[in-house]
Amino acid sequence: MILNEIKFTLQALANPEKAKILMRFFKTDKGEYGEGDTFLGITVPEQRLIAKQYFQNISLKEIEDLLSYNIHEYRLTSLLMLVFKYEKTKDIQEKKEIVLFYLSQTSRINNWDLVDTSCYKIVGHYCFHENEEQILYNLASSDDLWEKRIAIVSTMYFIRQQSLEIVTEMVLRNMNHSHDLMHKANGWMLREMGKKDESVLIDFLDEYAIKLPRTSLRYALEKLEPSVKDYYMKLK
């Protein structure tokens, strides 16, 4: 019954005009990375409110069922509920169960917003506090684009804890990946790392700026002084 309630609540908020915009934005045409996704046109804040309403009473099996749909908002709301479940529990075994469940569902966590709103809050948190960094290394070595993105974006939690070494290690593992979404994610995490410790970013750029894809470099430089940006961009 809870699944029907959630689906009914989401369907009631559907906005067909916004859905068309989102389908273009998230590249759902044939051959694009979001091919096959459909949208209802619901904002993330609206989905977050629904997730808060239902997360305590929904099981992992029911979340898995909701994740199986091609409707993007069903999957995002599922992941938001999973984040709330993970953050709410103090039981480390329950946290581990949620992490293992998350890792079993990566084929459905298959767009950048689905990854970015959930991975560092679940996988990143767990890997940092339980010394399970190997999970991130395994994901970074995957052939799957989304698992690679989970690996790098999960380091956001490490960055917030001032643990920065793993960030550059993850970037270097997929620095020359063919997809622009990885270039953006790598540059984003480098930028966030630099906001915590600019000297670490500068040391990395001194060695690797010339090798970084232009998109990664541009993202990494966003918060630096204009003269510093110009210096590194001219290396390209």
From TrEMBL:
Coiled coil: none annotated. Pfam families: DNA_alkylation. InterPro entries: ARM-type_fold, DNA_alkylation. This is 3-methyladenine DNA glycosylase AlkD. It comes from Chishuiella changwenlii.
